[in-house]
What does this fold into?
Amino acid sequence: MDRSERPMIRLSGVGKTYPDGTVAVQELDLDVPRGRTVCLVGPSGCGKSTTLKMVNRLIEPTSGTITLDGEDVTRGDPVALRRRIGYVIQQVGLFPHQTIRTNVATVPSLLGWDKKRSDERADQLLSLVGLDPVQYADRYPHQLSGGQRQRVGVARALAADPPVLLMDEPFGAVDPIVRGRLQDEFARISRELDKTVLFVTHDIDEAIRLGDEVAVFAVGGRLAQFDVPAKILGDPADDFVAEFVGASRGLRRLSVTPIAREDLEPVDERPTEEHIDVSSSLEDALAVMMRYDNGVVAVTEKGELVGVLTPNAVHKALRRSVASASSPPD
It folds into this structure.
C-alpha cells in the first residue's frame, strides 16, 4: 500500500478488559485517515477515552494491534512514542511555575532543541492559536483565563510538529461561548496544519462540527457506527445511534451541508452588504438571514458575487441532503 493511502492510525481487534472483568473496549477496528479529524463520541463509560489513551499507551490494550503510520506502537518505548504524539486534555496540566513560553516549549526541550529554537517555535505557535507572544509568552498560567489556557495546551501539543494529535474533551471545562470560539479556532488550525486528529467528546454537536468522520460508541465499548457526519445524522445505524444523535438531527444537518451552486439564484448586483462565501454551510446562510432579517443572502467566491440563496432554497437543499443520506448505496 502506498504510504499516502495508508491510515495514519489503525486499530485492529483492539480490546481492553480490566482484571475485575470489566470490558472497556470491545474488539475495535478503526482506521483514522492521514490528515483527517476523527471524533469519538458517546455517553460516559463507553470506552472512547480509553481508546484514545491506548493509542499513546497511557493505557495498555489487552488484545489487538495499534499502528501509527504502519508501525506497531505496542512494541516500542512508550515515552518516545508520546513525544511523537501531541496530547491535549480537558484540564490542560500546564506547569504553574513556568512561563507560557516555557510551557509550550516543553517537548522541544526534552527532544534536545536549543533554547533559541524552542522559544521561536513557542512564539510561532502562540501566534497560531491567537495569543500574541509579546503579550502572553512571559505570563504564568494563573494569569490566563480558562479559554486562554486551553489554547496554550493546544500550542504545547503542536510544539514538536507531531503528525498525530490526540484530544480528550479539550474544551469541556469552559463556558459555551468560549467553547464555540475554541472550536472555531481548532477547525482553522486543523485546516492550516493538515494534522491527523483523534478527538474525544461526549457532545454530538461538537463531533459533527469538528469531525471529518465520527465514531459513535455505545456503553460497553462497542463501536455502533463510524461514518461521515451527514451519514450519521441522516441514516443512523441503529436505535442507539438515532437516540444518541437526537430528534434534532435534521437541524444539525444544516451545519454539515454545503451550499450547492445549483441552489443559487442569479442576480446582477448584490442585494445586501451581508454575504457569505460559497464554501459556507447552510447553517451559515440561515444564520445570516436570521441575524439581519433578510429574505436572501448574497453568496460570493473570492469576493465576487455568484448568486443569492433564499430560505426556500435552503429548505430544498436540506431535504435533498436528508434524502441522499437515507438512500441505500448503489
